[in-house]
Each structure stands twice: as structure tokens, then as C-alpha cells.
Amino acid sequence: MQEITKETSRYIRHSLRSGAAPLSTKDEQIPQKIDQNYAEVDRLAQEKLKIAERLGLLIQRARTRLDYDLRRVLILQGDDPGQPAFVSTSRNPVQEINDNLRLAIAEAAPIVPPPPVVLPAVQAPTQKSALI
User: Crossing angle for the helix pair 2-18 and 30-76, nearest 10 degrees?
Assistant: First the structure.
């Protein structure tokens, strides 16, 4: 992004300096370079999203595997494993966290707005009539 900002300001500076004179071939290539830089930023953003989704799936799989192993260890030790600590009902852990937060907020005590403040009516001062 810094390179895009630098190239944009350079193009504007050269455009203003030259006025009505045609730009040099090097200066004419600046908008193309800016467009290429924006395309690269978009490509990297898409790649970042894919990596984040992949990371979420890997974390979910690791957590499920650990929960399974923990249950097996508890059973082998003779303890009652009970319910698993984490049971995923969806493929997206972020959505599940959001749903849990919404449920917690919905179950919380309702917020009662304070009653409106009523100020006593104040009469406007009367104007003294001019004596003629």
C-alpha cells in the first residue's frame, strides 16, 4: 500500500508540474503500475482469506481430535468422561461463537431504559409594551 501511495503522489506531482505539456513515457506508465499494485493487493487479500479459512478448519480438527483423545484417556483411567467439553454443530467455529454470544445476550436481564425527564414548563417573559 505504501508503494501505491508513493506512485500515486508521484504521478500527481508530475502531472501538476508539467501542466499542459505531455507526460514522459515513464510518467505515463505510473497509472498502469498503480493498477498492477492494486491488483496485487486484491490477490493477496483473497489469498489471506483462504489461509484464514484453512487455519480455522485445521484448528477445529485439532480441537476435535484432542477432545476425542481426552475422552479415551478418561475412559482408560476409569473416570466418567461425561459430555465432551466442545461439541461442534457447525463447520464454522467463528459463527458458532457469534451464536453463543447472541444467546448469552438474549438470556441476560433486559435493559430497561430510564424514564424520560420531564422539565416544568417555563413561561416566556412578557414584553413591556411601549407607552406612546
Answer: 170
Residue 125 has a pLDDT of 60
Tell me how long the chain is. 132
Domain ranges of the chain: 2-107
Q: Which helix (H) or strand (E) holds 101?
A: helix 93-107
**This prediction's pTM:** 0.43
Dmax (CA) for the chain in angstroms is 109
DSSP-derived secondary structure letter, 1: -
* CA distance linking residue 51 with residue 45, whole number of Å: 10
- Find the distance separating the first CA and the last CA of the chain, reported in whole Å: 77
Question: How far is residue 129 from each of residues 11, 122, 124, 126, 132, measured CA to CA in Å?
Answer: 70, 21, 15, 9, 9
Question: What gap in Å lies between CA 88 and CA 56, rounded to an integer?
Answer: 13
Predicted confidence (pLDDT) per residue in 52-107, tens digit = 999 999 999 999 898 888 888 888 888 877 755 555 555 676 777 777 777 777 77
